[in-house]
Amino acid sequence: MCPCDGAHARIDKGLRSTVRSPYAVDIVYSIVKTMVSDGHAQKRHGIETIIVHAQLSVGQEILLEGDLFTPLRVRGARRGVIITCTDIRGKAFRGRITEFKLDQARVRIFEEMLGPVESPFALVLLQALPARERMELIIQKATELGATAIYPLKSRHSISLQEREAMQPKAHRWQHIAKKAAEQCRRGLVPTVAPYCSFAEALAQARDLELKIILWEKEKTRLASLLKDRPVPRGIALLVGPEGGWDEEEVKQARDEGFIPVGLGGRILRTETAAIAACAILQYAWGGI
């Protein structure tokens, strides 16, 4: 059962009623939490998203309190901030916070978005830590391209977090970068940027995801070919290597965990280019872009 059972949303204008539903809000604090939707359990990643169990419309004012208010507090929201929320039909709306108190906020809906802001699948990026500021670029663009969680990891050929931070400490800003990118592209969910982890730990995080892919420059099968005629999976893990590429033992370990090696063509791409290109291909293949 969803832990948000009993969450409620009071709709002050239009509905004038209190709505209670186990699907009223989906707030995800851990890296992976199970959400119940349409009678099926599915994996979701990310920090928070607001789903109101009611039909919303432009001009409507809603009161967010209880579990519906918590995501705003986690994000450090305040009066005047614009948020994205989803209604019971799956339609996405933008609203401005007109009143913000300790335990509740009023939001006026002012725009219906053209389509869903979130993809029909969870996309988890497992990224070997690159040098310099490339990780910041990857987090920003992966967020814009619908990633729901990002795991920076240590591989045999990658720089360590300690080495990178000694030159230019930036890791403390990674979650903030994801938050700002999500706001810029009007997403309702902020991807979780997980703590730096080992290669084995990253593989373990992907264990329950339906489709697992590792980009490998020595693989002839291309990503687009793998996706052709394949039904939309509930969750995807995308494993991207460092500037020096994967060690063959790492590729073997990934295969043993169910990862499918694929390439992105004959050109050797920078790690940040490969991550961005693969995220875009996955979103294009299954309607997320």
What descriptive keywords fit this protein?
seven-stranded parallel beta sheet; globular; 2 domains; six-stranded antiparallel beta sheet; Alpha/beta knot; 289 residues; 27% strand; Ribosomal Protein L25, Chain P; alpha/beta
Q: What would you say the CATH architecture of the largest domain is?
A: 3-Layer(aba) Sandwich
Rg value: 20 Å
CATH topology of the largest domain: the name is Alpha/beta knot
Task: Determine and state the CATH class of the largest domain.
Answer: Alpha Beta
The pLDDT mean sits at 81
Task: Walk me through what this model shows.
- This protein is an alpha/beta fold and 289 residues long.
- It folds into 2 domains: 8-112, Ribosomal Protein L25, Chain P (Beta Barrel); 122-285, SPOUT methyltransferase, trefoil knot domain (Alpha/beta knot, 3-Layer(aba) Sandwich), CATH 3.40.1280.
- It contains 8 helices and 15 strands.
- Strands 9, 10, 11, 12, 13, 14 and 15 form a 7-stranded parallel sheet that branches. It has a 6-stranded antiparallel sheet with strand order 2-1-5-8-7-6, with no helix packed on it.
- Helix 2 packs parallel to helix 4 and helix 2 runs parallel beside helix 8.
- Mean pLDDT is 81; it is low at 1-44.
